[in-house]
Amino acid sequence: MHSVLLLLAVAFIHLGIVIIPGPNFLVIVKNSLMYSRRAGIVTARGVAIGTVVYVIAGFLGFTALLSQSVVLFNVFKWIGVVYFIYVGAQLIRHARNTQTDVNFQSADTPSFTDQQALRSGLLTMLSNVKSAFYFMFLFTTFLPTNVNIELKVIIIMLIPAISLTWYSVLALTFSNHRVRHIYQRIERWMNMIFGAVWIVLGLKLMSTTQE
């Protein structure tokens, strides 16, 4: 019974975290609107894979090490900063080159491969050093130290499953034909906004310090 309550608590906490808009939310929405439903769902898979990496790293103590090592922390932080700002700059450049009368490509157009979608989701998840701190908090202050291996395996599967489910719902929502049709009409301005938000996220990450 205690294990069931613990799993429910973990699920509730993680769901509360993933529904808050952030880099993962942004990359799912961007790829679903700009490319296709499949691109959004595959991007969600990439985020889920990145979540698996961080969950395992949390159990192995890597996230705790990250909070204690200034060098390691700064390496991860600046990788994230560069990646976020790069994505933002690319979106702004794309927006400036977009013609307002160009029809967006259909969902069947192979303009964005599965590999690119998966990579964008994975890199977005792994580049956010704040994710590491979240899992460090979860595993060091919430989960008891005597968690058995069976429960750890369930948690390793549960947390990414919640992420995948939520972000897949987002992909299905924002890849809806009507939603994408609205996006088509304001594509240039939406991409400018997306790009600006990515850059702001990068600047915000730049100011992140070790707890």
What does this molecule look like?
The chain has 211 residues and is mostly helical. The protein has one domain (23-206). The protein contains ten helices and no strands. It has helices spanning 2-18, 23-34, 37-60, 62-68, 70-97, 114-127, 129-142, 149-174, 177-185, 187-206. Helix 1 packs parallel to helix 8 (149-174) and helix 2 runs antiparallel to helix 10 (187-206). The longest helix is centred in the middle third of the chain and has 28 residues, at 70-97. It is globular and about 55 Å long. The two termini are 34 Å apart.
Main features:
10 helices; 211 residues; mainly alpha
The beta-strand count equals 0
Estimate the helix proportion, in percent.
Answer: over 70%
The helix/strand order is HHHHHHHHHH
Number of continuous helical runs? 10
Quote the average pLDDT. Answer: 84
As residue ranges, the low-confidence spans are 100-110
The radius of gyration over CA amounts to: 18 Å
The secondary structure category is mainly alpha
How much strand content do the residues show?
under 5%
* Overall outline: globular
Q: Quick one: biggest sheet?
A: none
Number of domains: 1
Distance from first to last alpha carbon: 34 Å
